[in-house]
Amino acid sequence: MLMKMSEFLKVLPPKLCYICGERIEEQHECYGNKCHKCLGFKDL
Ligand SMILES: [Zn+2]
């Protein structure tokens, strides 16, 4: 059941915005789980 690291990375699901559910393009980890659109609402 062991997988090579390269194969493990392939099966990782894309990051999804936890607010709107859109796939998040690769960004720095500091963006968390929010897409660009939802990041604009962080002041609310
Ligand atoms: Zn979003």
Shape: elongated
Number of E-state strands? 0
Helix coverage percent of residues? 25-40%
Structural class: mainly alpha
User: What's the oligomerization state?
Assistant: single chain
Mean pLDDT: 74
In short:
It is built from 2 helices and no strands. By secondary structure, it is an all-alpha fold.
How do the helices and strands line up, and which of them pair or pack?
Layout (H helix, E strand, L loop, with lengths): L4 H7 L24 H4 L5
Bound molecules: zinc ion.
Walkthrough of the structure:
The protein has 44 residues and is mainly alpha-helical. Helices cover 25% and strands 0% of the residues. Bound molecules: zinc ion (ZN). The site of zinc ion has 8 residues, from helix 2.
Based on the model shown, name its key terms:
elongated; mainly alpha; binds zinc ion; 44 residues
